[in-house]
TrEMBL record:
Pfam families: zf-HC2 (PF13490). The keyword Transcription regulation applies. The keyword Transmembrane applies. The chain crosses the membrane at residues 92-113. Keywords: Membrane, Transcription, Transcription regulation, Transmembrane, Transmembrane helix. The lineage of its organism: Bacteria, Bacillati, Actinomycetota, Actinomycetes, Kitasatosporales. This is Zf-HC2 domain-containing protein. It comes from Streptomyces flavalbus.
Amino acid sequence: MRSLERHRDVGAYALGVLDEAESFRFEDHLMDCASCTAHVTEFGPATRQLMLYRRATPRSVHPMAGPGPRLLERLLGEVAARHRARRRLRRYAVAAAVALAVAGPGAVLLTGGGDGGGEAAVRVTATDARSGVWARVTGADETWGSRVEVTVKDAAGPRVCRLVAVGHDGSEETVTTWTVPGHDARPHTMNGGAALHPHEIDRYEVRTADGTRLVTLPSP
């Protein structure tokens, strides 16, 4: 497959419609293409909305059913709620930094005012002794699932990585994808989301593009 065709596959890959062979070839392309990696992350919200629509739509409803008269009002309300939640999350991050400085390494649980479903925001950290990768995940409940922030220290780049949320039922969702710079141990923060709510998530896993697990963070 030519390079230009690989760039064109970014949308199909993000939406999960490529077959296994094509997905493998595209993930190999992601290792060297920062532009496609960024585009995969940008497709995250659209992918989650389509997944939520599929779960919420009865089988008897036509897939091209028109929106109800209150759809715009609900969407505007959701956007406003997300803006409020982001401001609260920044305040929680400052408090968590103080807690981490006092408590030292290990898993830290941060509770605060939740949004959407009313659950508290939670934060957990972990370091894998084998890979040397350190990660911190902060999750907040939303009406549509979980809003997630992940910070990673990984000096073994360059490589493409992803954060996967694993449900109690064994289901998996890719929260966000990023490229690790070469030999850069500085923390890097990414944002994403999952259709699973916090109480439905068993653990988070940081994995490479080929599926190698780098660090596991049990969900509180």
